[in-house]
Amino acid sequence: MRRLIAIRNLAKSFGGLQAVHDCSLDIGRGTITGLIGPNGAGKTTLFNMIAGALRPTSGQILFEDRDIAGLPPHALFRMGIVRTFQIPHEFAEMTVIENLMLVPQAQTGERLLASWVQWGRVRAEEEENRARAESVLDFLQLTRLRDERAGNLSGGQKKLLELGRTMMTEARLVLLDEPGAGVNPTLMGELAEMVQRLNRERGYTFCIIEHDMDLIARLCDPVYVLAEGTVLTHGRMEDIRRDPRVLEAYLGGSAETAGSSAGSRLSAGGAA
Ligand SMILES: Nc1ncnc2c1ncn2[C@@H]1O[C@H](COP(=O)(O)OP(=O)(O)OP(=O)(O)O)[C@@H](O)[C@H]1O
Description:
- InterPro entries: AAA+_ATPase, ABC_AA/LPS_Transport, ABC_transporter-like_ATP-bd, ABC_transporter-like_CS, BCA_ABC_TP_C, P-loop_NTPase.
- One of its GO terms (molecular function) is ATP binding.
- The protein is α/β, with parallel strands linked by helices and about 270 residues long.
- The protein has two domains: about 200 residues, P-loop containing nucleotide triphosphate hydrolases (Rossmann fold, 3-Layer(aba) Sandwich); about 60 residues, no CATH class.
- The protein is about 40% helix and about 25% strand.
- It has a six-stranded mixed beta sheet, sandwiched between helices. It has a four-stranded antiparallel beta sheet with strand order 2-1-4-5, with helices on one face.
- A hairpin with a 2-residue loop joins strand 4 and strand 5.
- Helix 6 runs parallel beside helix 7.
- The site of adenosine-5'-triphosphate has 11 residues, from strand 2 and helix 1.
């Protein structure tokens, strides 16, 4: 498997707290890689560093062998690293299709002078953009909601729209932050299917943080387990579920936080 991302000895401290340390992992090209771990394990901090929202204290993030650690989000976006958020950030007053058409960067139409002197080209770009947005809606089976205000969508539909927004870019690596949070089981199934199709048919590589272990088991291979800021183990979910060190990490985490049953989180049918 060729690597798309190689993280080497990554660390991030907040004052005296080492949120991530000695963290090394690979994201293979064309994989759907999962990232799990108890609360406070450092998953979001790691995502923030890959997406450029946080500058690492030390270590490397190699994207196709180029060190991208510390590059700003817009530079990473241009390279095809796209992050979607736990809370979808649609423009509520705009329609679904308008939300999609907003995404492409640096269109000719956004440059005032160009819009005066290159009117034909601007029109052509806009038509191309609209056609792409229509095909995204078709792919996500959201065409019936094309002219709906995005603010009126359900939580799960907003997540599909968020996935659609990544499809309007030249995404190479999509970082999905808890796609399953707050989504009903039917839409969860649709979302999972879309991720699989984007992976299979469009060659997107995904890295997913998720507390729903069934969703992780369904989608991800490999799965990395983070605990106390570093990689505890990685492998297939069915092996990870049986790993006593993983159970131990979750038991420790749950004792400090929610107090829920760590065993049931990891067993089939349980969410963290
Ligand atoms: N901006 C920050 N300033 C100070 N401490 C932070 C900051 N962000 C995260 N931390 C701390 O870093 C540690 C790792 O947090 P992080 O959010 O990365 O964990 P997580 O695995 O994503 O947890 P969860 O599953 O609960 O979202 C925690 O102890 C957290 O309190």
